Structure formats: structure tokens, C-alpha cells
From TrEMBL:
Keywords: Ligase, Metal-binding, Zinc, Zinc-finger
Annotated gene: Pias1_0
Example of a GO biological process term: regulation of transcription by RNA polymerase II
Cytoplasm listed as a keyword: no
Name of the featured protein: E3 SUMO-protein ligase
Keyword rRNA processing among record annotations: no
Length: 271
């Protein structure tokens, strides 16, 4: 406790995790209720999704009523909460030495969860960026192998090249630090800096491309695309890159040949 700022230096949070990964969506249990010292704790807001039941719960119970999450009158719309930390600090009394009583309950939930209480220190996006840059990155060779597999899977369709954007899907600006989640299966990346900034303001930790959960420890910088966006030969106006099947890439850009006509040209760049 900091007597000058009248605040705790650390925070106490509640986390829940699925015992087995059976839900497509990383969510909190249905009808969850968290009460600390007789006070109702603030929960993440409810979301509505027009999804199939199997997308919400990929578990089967012998009792039909346990297979359905909280739902509205429309059976195709389900109410659920993102699985993000639940703040407990403001409901605690850590200065008097008295016991703090925490009660967590939920119902109509076919998936098993474990509950944990953690003491944490809040880090800024800049702090996380420093830590992210210390982590191993996705090796250049690994991405090249992935690219060749993509080309191989499309060979029957006569596809020799792929086009990928180098714009961040969050800011629509050129990426500075291309990254994706370790479980993401798409080639496109998001900008890790923008991703950290966004989650500092509103914690969702969802990939902006495939919507899978991407926790901080699962963010992976892509060395191949990083070399491209840092290339001194990449023009400022370039937004998309053509990926060749041998791992080389070509820049697509628009050049003006007259005041009334424009056409796209490809400029091959070997890296």
C-alpha cells in the first residue's frame, strides 16, 4: 500500500482457464458470479454472437440443459464474456489483517474451469514491447517453409504467387513489427506495437485477423515480414507485397505515366 498515492502498488486479479480446450471461444463460464467480501465484482461485459452451439461449447453433456450457454429468445444468439482478468483489488482489505472471503460460482456449464488468484504489477505497452523484443522470433526459414506449403496447396488452381498486405489491420498503417499468434494459421500479420497499445486500453487479446486469443506470451514476431517492412528498397507508398514461391518477393505499387492514366507495375526485389 502506497500511503502517498493512497493506492496499492500491485493488483490482485482473478483468472479462469479451461481444464481442457473444448471451447472455440476463450470465454468465462456461463452465468459466472464473483463476490468478494460480500461485494459483487465487476465482470467483463456480455457479448452477443450469432454462432452455432458447437462454436460456443464443443463439449457434450448427457443432460441437454447443460449444453446451452445463456441465450436470448433467439436461439441463434448467445451471451458470453471474454476470458480476461477480473479485478479484485478494490474489493480487498489488506491493511487490517482480516480475512478476505472470495466466492466464485457458475451454472449450466459443460466445460470444466480452474480458478486462480494472482498478485500482479501492471505494465505499460512500452514495458511489454521491451519484453517482446527479448523473446525468440519466428525464424525466416520457418516462414519460407510455410510459404512454400501454401504454394504447394494451391498448385492445382494454377496459383504461382500470393499477395499479402503490409498494413496493420488495426491502424491501417504500415506495420513496424509484424507478428501473429503462435496458433494462428494465416500468413498475414498484425503490428505488435499497435496490438499492445490497443490491449493496454481495452484487454481482449484477440487476433484482429482470425479472432483467436493471442496472449502476450504467444505473440511471435515474423522475421521474414520484418525484413520486408525494414527493407531500404521498399517504397513509402507500397501497401501490398507479392510473395513468390521461391521465397522472394515483389513490390506492387502504382506509378503515374501521365496525368490521366495509371497502371500497376511489379518490381522484383531479392532478399
Amino acid at each position: 500500500w502506497d500511503s502517498e498515492s493512497n493506492k496499492y502498488n500491485y493488483k490482485i486479479i482473478l483468472r479462469l482457464e479451461q481444464v481442457e480446450r473444448k471451447s472455440f471461444i476463450e470465454r468465462l463460464p456461463n452465468n459466472i458470479d464473483v463476490c468478494l467480501n460480500g461485494r459483487q465484482c465487476k465482470l467483463p461485459k456480455l457479448n452477443t454472437s450469432k454462432l452455432k452451439l458447437d462454436d460456443i461449447n464443443m463439449a457434450v453433456s448427457e443432460e441437454p440443459e447443460l449444453n446451452s450457454p445463456a441465450s436470448t429468445d433467439d436461439d441463434s444468439i448467445f451471451l458470453w464474456r471474454h476470458n480476461i482478468p477480473i479485478e479484485l483489488t478494490e474489493y480487498l482489505d489488506l491493511r487490517t489483517g482480516l480475512n478476505n472471503v472470495l466466492a466464485v460460482s457458475w451454472s449450466n456449464e459443460p466445460i470444466s474451469f480452474i480458478v486462480g488468484v494472482f498478485v500482479v504489477q501492471k505494465l505499460t505497452w512500452k514495458d511489454l514491447l521491451v519484453e517482446l523484443k527479448k523473446k525468440p522470433i519466428r525464424a525466416y526459414e520457418k516462414t519460407i517453409k510455410f510459404l512454400k506449403e501454401l504454394h504447394k496447396s494451391e498448385v492445382d488452381f494454377g496459383v504461382d504467387t500470393f499477395t499479402v498486405t503490409i498494413k496493420d489491420p488495426l491502424t491501417m498503417q504500415r506495420m513496424k513489427l509484424p507478428a501473429r499468434g503462435v496458433e494462428c494459421v494465416h500468413f498475414s500479420c498484425f503490428d505488435a506495437i499497435s496490438f499492445l497499445k490497443m490491449n493496454e486500453q481495452k484487454q481482449t487479446w484477440l487476433c484482429p485477423i482470425c479472432k483467436k486469443q493471442v496472449k502476450f506470451e504467444n505473440i511471435e514476431i515474423d522475421e521474414y515480414l520484418l525484413k520486408i517492412v525494414q527493407s531500404p528498397t521498399l517504397s513509402e507508398e507500397c501497401e501490398n507485397i507479392i510473395l513468390l514461391k521461391d521465397g522472394n518477393w515483389a513490390e506492387t505499387k502504382t506509378n503515374a505515366f501521365s496525368s490521366n492514366s495509371k497502371r500497376k507495375i511489379c518490381e522484383s526485389i531479392i532478399i
